[in-house]
């Protein structure tokens, strides 16, 4: 008996037209569909033009190698080389990798999120697998550093801020027709964008500069970054929305440490291990959707404050704040009034927060210790708001019983433990993919 084997050849005819989109005539901001090895996944091809083949095979684009040749000595201007590498890495779904060194720039590095033609929806959409991810090496004695050259064009006006690194995500106006709006940002689709292990320095004569702009969504974050904003306007603008986070960030100087220039565009952001040193206007000016949670924050200040300014939001529960396991220090005790929080226009919750030399922790609501430490074991302040003919209240409850709008539990002359903030972070011995062995 002979066994007859019949093989069916399945031929898939991939049309060049997806809905009303001709993939042979795409806009420069839209990429063709990814079909292999998994539709709408990550391409596995290694671009031949990359000079550092070892890193390329690991999915990394070396900014110092061919064809980019960014200068890691800081002598030459690397703006064009780094922008080329950032775009190339995104287009090929790779990580833009900075070997140890110093990289001088004189203009904004734009990290534009990818939009591509979906294989099964016959339309375009922002892609969670085409982000801009910037990673610095962990092998050197110091982190790789991006420095804005002194007196760079367009960075010298605090009334017209400009970013060193700016993340963008253009709005899709019509998915089926492939129409996008490059003048309008849509941050809630900016997913999986990262900056890891990169330091940023703003050079002299750049008073309108902000180091990094990143308003983002799930999977995105900034980790292990030191920003010297002494000569600039601010350190960070934005936040990572729910599903993302910022961790282990130090910002030195600037008028503002962390702000959000786009109003309440980011939902429920979280930050951990944030150190803010000697800002001249305020340490944090948050303005976010829902509740902003910051854990392991350390603020050191020479000004009298307020250090944290919670702005009013149009919606009743936006821009509330939770501050946990944190330490705030006014460097000198003096007769002048020193305030942490201006009277908040949104609800506020503090848990295990230590404050030194502040006579007012929350304006008109919680006094401090002008000449020493105070430990806020727990503090809750509910702000009532009217919205669309409804009254929203924020009382606190004790064992299910409604009590009032404010609660406090404090201790005077109680100093913080050494690991108050650091216990929330990995230590310097935590291995990375570059660790020997």
Describe the secondary-structure layout:
Blueprint: E1 17-18, E2 21-22, E3 30-31, H1 53-56, E4 60-62, E5 73-77, H2 79-91, E6 95-98, E7 102-105, E8 109-112, E9 115-117, E10 124-126, E11 133-136, E12 145-148, E13 162-168, E14 170-174, E15 179-185, E16 194-196, E17 199-202, E18 209-216, E19 221-228, E20 234-240, E21 245-252, E22 256-259, E23 270-277, E24 282-285, E25 291-301, E26 320-330, E27 339-341, E28 348-362, E29 366-381, E30 385-387, E31 390-392, E32 396-398, E33 401-404, E34 406-412
Offer a quick outline of the entry.
The chain is mainly β and 437 residues long.
Write up what this structure looks like.
The chain has helices at residues 53-56, 79-91; strands spanning 17-18, 21-22, 30-31, 60-62, 73-77, 95-98, 102-105, 109-112, 115-117, 124-126, 133-136, 145-148, 162-168, 170-174, 179-185, 194-196, 199-202, 209-216, 221-228, 234-240, 245-252, 256-259, 270-277, 282-285, 291-301, 320-330, 339-341, 348-362, 366-381, 385-387, 390-392, 396-398, 401-404, 406-412. The protein is globular, with a radius of gyration of 25 Å. By secondary structure, it is mainly β. The protein has a 17-stranded mixed beta sheet that branches. It has a 6-stranded parallel beta sheet with strand order 8-13-18-20-22-24. It has a 3-stranded mixed beta sheet with strand order 3-9-10, with no helix packed on it.
